[in-house]
Amino acid sequence: MFHAQAFLDLNACLSSIFGSSSVSRYLAFISTYPTGMWSFTIAKKGEALNYTNFNIAQAAIFSQKHQLKYYTPDIHLAAFTLPPYIRKMLQDRLAE
Fold first, then answer.
1. Residue 76 CA from chain centroid, whole number
2. How far apart are CA 37 and CA 89, in angstroms?
3. Helix 4-18 crosses helix 84-95 at what angle (to 10 degrees)?
4. Considering Cα of 4, then 5, then 8, then 10, what sign does the dihedral take?
5. The whole model's pTM is what?
């Protein structure tokens, strides 16, 4: 279902390089990929990563202006909301 060890190892490695507050991840379900669930990770060196610190009203205007068919500020925020069992796996691994 999910390659948990590879996911945890990658996130531990990136957290050791960038700092745990500078790494974030999100999941997507892609039916043609093994297991279907795929993770994406972003990091920013030198300061905490705050993917929710953006102008929601401006993002909504941009989305409407360009007639985006998928992206909205709500989708953006929801993309970074991890299931509880994955959040727990990450917290347990980072606590080691």
1. 10
2. 16
3. 50
4. negative
5. 0.72
Residue 23: name the closest of 85, 75, 82, 72 by CA. Answer: 82
Separation of alpha carbons 9 and 35, rounded Å = 18
For residue range 1-49, list pLDDT tens digits in order: 568 888 899 999 999 999 888 898 988 888 888 778 888 898 988 878 8
Amino acid type, 5: Q
**Residues 22 and 45 sit within 8 Å (Cβ to Cβ):** yes
User: What was the pLDDT predicted at 62?
Assistant: 94
- Counting beta carbons within 10 angstroms of the beta carbon of residue 11, is it exposed (0 to 12), middle (13 to 18) or buried (19 or more)? buried
Cα Rg of the chain, angstroms: 15
